[in-house]
Amino acid sequence: MFWLEIAVLLGMILIGSQMKGIGLGVMGMVGLLIFIFVFKMKPTDPPIDVMLIIMSIVTTAATLQASGGLDYLVNLAEQIIRKNPSNITFIAPFTVYFLCLFAGTAHIVYSLLPIISEVAAKKRIRPERPLSISVIASHLALTGSPMSAATAAFVVVLAYPGALVDIMMICIPSSIIGLLIGCFSVFKSGKELNDDPIFIEKMKDPEFAKSLDTESESSGTPLKPGAKKSVVIFGVAILMIVIAGAFPDLLPRFSPGAATLAVAKDGSLTMVTIIGVVTLTASAMMMLLTKTSAAEVTKASLFTAMASAVVSVFGVVWMSFTFMNHNQKLISEVLGEAVAEYPWTFAIAVFIMGVLMFSQAATTKTMMPLGMTLGVAHPALIAIFPAVNSDFVLPGYPTLLAAINFDRTGSTKIGKYVINHSFLIPGVVAIGVAIAIGFLLGTLLL
């Protein structure tokens, strides 16, 4: 029966991931329906906490976008990339990493991918190199950013004072080191651009050749009047969340009682409350002080993407939670001993689930509670956290497809066997190194 149940679980995830958008969520609900009415599983509580966190954080990021703050940040990043064309394989991914770390979303990378591709091609550097590792950088930044839904969900799962600071203290430096090694892994990958037969063929087109030989200036997107002000407000919100996570004693505390979404059993505020109140207050301040209308925020692309994220988490995580809870004893018997003796093996399970779910937040909310049930210690779980970024393995994630489409030279591509694409090696290397360094840092710092 277990194998039939897991076939349903994986089948719904695979079908949903192919449908894109809200497909993962609605197919998750189909799986939940089957679990409840066919297999008679008792449903768990839906993941309301993660859904509220996603709504709060993405709304704030969408407000930053609508007020011009994201354009300002992209302009700064573009200037950095264009000033160092010869070292673009290293400069671009680190620029992308810190930009996404601040913004808490990987989707900001879309604005930089065509710039990275263009600068690399003009310098006759194979665009596949900086593009592939830059996409991985945009994903890695989410496991450490206090403004990412995945990190916020992980803080809720860990549920101990100072969890956010511990995650940042381990995951940010380990991801930076992983990213650096990832850059080296692609530094000489593939043929040099001038020796690539596809590029040579493209250069026979006079217009294509002229476009690469013509110097182009920075896009210099006109900024809205309140762009810089919105970035400052967003930065203050990040700082407040970090301080709240680092110094919980500074926050109001109420009488102990039954735990709720807003207040923990000991009377302390939950991270759902802290993140929701701080981020949406920041959104209000941005709208008021930059004269950005609420209608502009709801039209922002990030706000639109939020609906898909919430529906996906609602369906697939609820289905997965129900399956895990129903089979908790069996899963603990099968995995418990191995994971207890070799905690790093749990990273493999997290990585595989991340491949299927196409969502860091959903993978975090599904797998990290399982890790705690199996007895994986907090430092080990934090070290394993970057494994949720494995959504690059199957080349269907939007950031990967965008990078392929923006590379006019054709060097960034999907291979004959689908998974042998441009992003596989840098992704596996960067995440593998990040996890290894995370275990080392966890031993030293926690």
TrEMBL record:
Q: Which GO terms describe its cellular component?
A: plasma membrane
Q: A Pfam family matched by this chain, by name?
A: DcuA_DcuB
Q: Name one GO molecular function term.
A: C4-dicarboxylate transmembrane transporter activity
The entry's localization annotation reads: Cell inner membrane
Give the principal location in a single coarse category.
membrane
Q: Which residues cross the membrane?
A: 6-38, 50-70, 90-113, 133-161, 167-187, 231-248, 268-289, 301-321, 341-358, 423-445
For membrane topology, the record states: Multi-pass membrane protein
Name the UniProt key words of this record, in alphabetical order: Cell inner membrane, Cell membrane, Membrane, Transmembrane, Transmembrane helix, Transport
Highest rank taxon of the organism: Bacteria
Q: By its UniProt entry, which InterPro entries does this protein fall under?
A: Anaer_Dcu_memb_transpt (IPR004668)
Q: Sorted alphabetically, which NCBIfam families does this protein's record hold?
A: Dcu, PRK09412.1, PRK12489.1
The family assignment reads: Belongs to the DcuA/DcuB transporter (TC 2.A.13.1) family.
Q: What is this protein called?
A: C4-dicarboxylate ABC transporter
Q: Which organism is it from?
A: Flavobacterium enshiense DK69
